[in-house]
Amino acid sequence: MQGDISALTAQQRKGLSTFIDSGCATCHKGVGLGGDTFQKFGMVNEPYWKYTLSPKQDEGRFEVTKKEDDKYFFRVPGLRNVARTYPYFHDGSVWELDQAIRVMAQTQLGQELDKEQVADIAAFLQSLSGPVPESARIIPELPISVTQTPHPDNQ
């Protein structure tokens, strides 16, 4: 991210090039490689659940805003530590990074990536990994809302 191309292996550089050339960087941009916008999941090929095999069809921001234009819009996730933060997507429906890459290429870009392209992008995404802080491994204790039933462990 700071311009030191020697920080990446040859395969990671190839993956970065494929990531950019395929159009992934259009949404996964900035310091966190995403996390700052909302996009429709299934922009090109919909419905997204055909590709993720999601058991429940989440309507995204629509469930909060009730605006038809927000159907199937989700926050574009940042890709830092993405290789370590599975399962993938808003519903945790995909557990393998290579499968998540294929789903994104199909649903968002309308592309079928070959095995080498997927492996190269996965290698690039691996390069975005760093230490996961211990605080990220602790489940936060959230306040109970009036409409929420307490979890049995918290009674």
Can you describe this structure?
The radius of gyration is 17 Å and the shape is globular. The chain has helices at 10-22, 49-52, 62-65, 97-109, 115-126; strands at 38-40, 73-75. The N and C termini lie far apart (46 Å). The mean pLDDT is 89. It is mainly alpha-helical. It has a two-stranded antiparallel ribbon with strand order 1-2.
Layout of secondary structure:
Blueprint: H1 10-22, E1 38-40, H2 49-52, H3 62-65, E2 73-75, H4 97-109, H5 115-126
Antiparallel strand pairs: 1-2
Labels describing this entry:
single chain, 155 residues, mainly alpha, two-stranded antiparallel ribbon, 5 helices
Straight-line distance between termini = 46 Å
- What is the overall number of helices? 5
In the predicted model, the low-confidence regions spanning at least 5 consecutive residues are: none
Give me the side-by-side strand order of the main sheet: 1-2
Structural class: mainly alpha
Q: Could you give a short account of the major beta sheet?
A: 2 strands, antiparallel
How much beta, percentage-wise?
under 5%
> How big is the Rg?
17 Å
Strand runs, count: 2
Quaternary state reads single chain
**Mean pLDDT score, rounded?**
89
What letter string, H or E per element, gives the SSE order?
HEHHEHH
Using the alpha-carbon principal axes, give the shape. Answer: globular
